[in-house]
Specification:
Elements (H helix, E strand, L loop, with lengths): L6 H4 L8 E2 L9 E3 L5 E3 L2 E11 L4 E12 L4 E5 L6 H9 L6 E6 L2 E2 L7 E4 L11 H12 L3 H14 L15 H13 L5 E5 L7 H18 L2 E5 L3 H7 L2 E5 L6 E6 L8 H5 L2 H20 L1
Parallel strand pairs: 6-11, 6-12, 9-10, 10-11
Antiparallel strand pairs: 1-13, 2-3, 4-5, 4-7, 7-8, 12-13
Length: 295
């Protein structure tokens, strides 16, 4: 049964003209909930910069990035290759330390690897000698979760993602889309409050990718998980997200944040024909085209 979602509670701030430019949240890292009251952001970045030193030169990957993501919100990140999109996810996961600025997860400063998030990558990275069910249960084994609750949770996720009947199949017996469903189940097993997704459907064919977009929208609505998605597909970003973060070429910073303005439950074909979809996608395409021209 699909959980009802109040879109007003997922919009971090009122927008004007369908766009929200980047800015700092108020003291305490709270976001507006549409009622005039503040709540702790699920993800918060404040004046974040990332700099690397190579043998030849210093490289600034991210510069002055500030972003707040509300609880239960779906935010997509798009931008030119090499602009720091994946670096941003690694910061939130605690896999990379910011050179300056602050990163927070549910109000707590991120100062090391976080075990309470879910992470889905472009490749499913399944263990070939394990069945779909046992690949999902790997998460439970690593976290030392109680066996019986973990098995029940796996059964729920398998049904939710349409993998029923393939629980005992090995990775080589599964299509690319099914493998990504297994990876998604594995990431959601421990019910993380925040799910990070780094180009999870980039290697899939166009038809399978559309199907996975529809599946992800439904799963997001049913679980209420906060999602931060990196993608190179503008249509994917606009179809899935509440807001789309557009980043500049390196050093990556936030050019603009677009409020898509669509309800949470979205029919794929109908949504792509909506004026709001076409307006947001066209605006993002224009921003990225301008960014490419500046490179």
């Amino acid at each position: 049964m699909t959980m009802a979602r109040d879109t007003a509670l997922r919009k971090p701030a009122a927008t004007k003209g369908g766009a929200l430019t980047a800015g700092k949240a108020a003291e305490g890292r709270t976001v507006g909930d549409g009622t005039g009251e503040g709540r702790t952001a699920a993800v918060g970045l404040e004046d974040v910069a990332v700099r690397f030193r190579t043998k030849k030169r210093d490289v600034t990957a991210l510069h002055d990035v500030s972003l707040d993501v509300a609880m239960g919100e779906f935010v997509a990140i798009v931008g030119p290759s090499g602009c720091g999109k994946s670096t941003l996810l690694k910061l939130v996961a605690g896999l990379l330390k910011a050179s300056s600025g602050a990163v927070r997860l549910q109000g707590e400063r991120v100062d090391g690897p976080r075990h309470d998030i879910g992470y889905v990558f472009q490749r499913a990275a399944l263990l070939e000698w394990r069945t779909a069910r046992r690949n999902i249960l790997l998460q439970a084994e690593m976290r030392r979760m109680p066996a019986e609750p973990a098995r029940r949770r796996v059964a729920e996720l398998i049904e939710m993602t349409g993998l029923s009947g393939f629980e005992d199949a090995y990775p080589h017996e599964l299509s690319g889309g099914m493998q990504q469903r297994v990876a998604l189940c594995r990431a959601l097993l421990h019910e993380p409050p925040v799910l990070l997704m780094d180009e999870p459907f980039g290697a899939l064919d166009a038809l399978t990718r559309e199907q996975m977009n529809m599946e992800l929208n439904r799963i997001w609505r049913e679980t209420g998980t906060t999602v931060l998605l990196v993608t190179h597909s503008i249509s994917e970003a606009v179809y899935l997200a509440d807001r789309v973060v557009v980043m500049s070429p390196r050093p990556g910073t936030i050019t603009e944040i677009i409020d898509v303005g669509l309800e949470a439950e979205r029919d794929y074909t109908e949504t792509l024909g909506r004026p709001e979809f076409r307006e947001a996608a066209g605006h993002i395409r224009g921003l990225l085209g301008a960014a490419s021209a500046q490179e």
